């Protein structure tokens, strides 16, 4: 994993075309919100972690929509299409980590380790995952869940991107994971995921490729994390080709979930705190705040 000398952090500058809406949005996030019980609660800080491999064309769609986060971490696999230059031209405050293109899993682990906010949201750079859904993930984390995974198979979710073969493979792998780990998930192989930053270490991730999504889910079980699914709609990748190979990566997912099933449990949290209801004011703020248009 790459160390901080490859991290570039720059201050906000005049080239930041979205500075005004973002500033307004961040003010809304950091404002204290009066709860029903009269106590004030604060939105947690949020880092978006985004792996990129030649995604400049797609980032023209995504970057202007990343208004409601406190930190953006881009882990770039030495893109040759101007990905890094584009990000810095519109978001000079983004943190960019460049490392060899050894797989999405490696990139995500690097990004999670670099994130500094209380909550982390992971999404692809290809424009298939909409930041307008951030609040659905964050609301569940705020209630006390540690790990919230998007699902394209519950009411309100969907996919324009899955081929028939991938859909079948995902369904078989999800069913198997549910058997092996006694879960009731509806979608295993989906990379739109959010977690508390203190969950990162507990997950003890080692994957290098697309099987990282499976490893995150099954290690969340093995570590005793509180897991929730939330509906998400995946659109088609906007430009370019997927880097995923259905057979090769499906096989890696299968091997990962079977291998981990027979390893010792990870350190588990002794007991869960009760889930908190979200006060009404907090909910209202959650669903009116994301400025993505
Ligand atoms: N840094 C880095 N990012 C990668 C690598 N492989 C894939 N990605 C990124 O991971 C995300 C998911 O990849 P994608 O090709 O969209 O896979 P799909 O969503 O499963 O079709 C995209 O944002 C890619 O740019 C890699 O080796 N290094
Ligand atoms: Mg994708």
TrEMBL record:
What family does the entry list? Belongs to the glycosyltransferase 2 family.
- GO MF terms, alphabetically ordered: transferase activity
On the tree of life, the source organism's domain of life is Bacteria
Question: Where are the residues of the annotated region Disordered?
Answer: 1-22
TM annotation in the entry = none
| Keywords from the UniProt entry | Transferase
Give the matching InterPro entries.
Glyco_trans_2-like, Glycosyltransferase_2, Nucleotide-diphossugar_trans
Q: Which CDD domains does the protein's record reference?
A: DPM_DPG-synthase_like (cd04179)
Where does the secretion signal sit in this chain?
Answer: none
The record, for PANTHER family, names: RFBJ PROTEIN (PTHR48090:SF7), UNDECAPRENYL-PHOSPHATE 4-DEOXY-4-FORMAMIDO-L-ARABINOSE TRANSFERASE-RELATED (PTHR48090)
Q: Give the source lineage, highest ranks first.
A: Bacteria, Bacillati, Actinomycetota, Actinomycetes, Streptosporangiales
Domain Glycosyltransferase 2-like: from-to ranges: 48-203
- Name of the molecule in the record: Glycosyltransferase family 2 protein
Q: Which source organism does the UniProt entry give?
A: Actinomadura rudentiformis
SUPFAM superfamilies, sorted:
Nucleotide-diphospho-sugar transferases
């Amino acid at each position: 994993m790459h160390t901080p000398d490859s991290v570039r952090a720059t201050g906000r500058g005049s080239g930041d075309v979205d500075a005004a809406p973002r500033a307004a949005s961040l003010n809304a996030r950091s404002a204290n919100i009066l709860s029903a019980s009269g106590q004030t609660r604060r939105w947690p800080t949020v880092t978006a972690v985004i792996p990129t491999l030649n995604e400049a064309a797609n980032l023209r769609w995504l970057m202007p929509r990343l208004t409601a986060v406190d930190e953006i971490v881009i882990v770039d696999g030495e893109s040759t299409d101007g990905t890094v230059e584009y990000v810095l031209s519109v978001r000079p405050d983004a943190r960019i980590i460049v490392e060899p293109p050894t797989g999405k899993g490696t990139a995500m682990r690097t990004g999670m380790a670099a994130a500094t906010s209380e909550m982390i949201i992971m999404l692809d750079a290809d424009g298939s995952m909409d930041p307008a859904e951030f609040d659905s993930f964050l609301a569940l984390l705020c209630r006390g869940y540690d790990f919230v995974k998007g699902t394209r198979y519950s009411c309100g979710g969907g996919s324009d991107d899955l081929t028939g073969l991938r859909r079948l493979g995902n369904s078989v792998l999800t069913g198997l994971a549910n058997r092996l780990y006694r879960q009731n998930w509806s979608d295993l192989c989906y990379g739109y995921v959010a977690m508390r930053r203190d969950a990162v270490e507990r997950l003890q991730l080692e994957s290098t490729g697309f099987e990282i999504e499976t490893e995150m889910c099954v290690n969340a079980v093995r570590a005793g994390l509180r897991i929730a699914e939330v509906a998400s709609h995946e659109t088609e990748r906007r430009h370019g080709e997927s880097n995923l190979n259905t057979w090769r990566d499906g096989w890696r997912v299968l091997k990962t979930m079977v291998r981990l099933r027979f390893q010792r449990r990870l350190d588990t949290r002794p007991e869960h705190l009760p889930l908190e209801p979200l006060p009404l004011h907090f909910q209202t703020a959650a669903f009116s705040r994301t400025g993505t248009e």
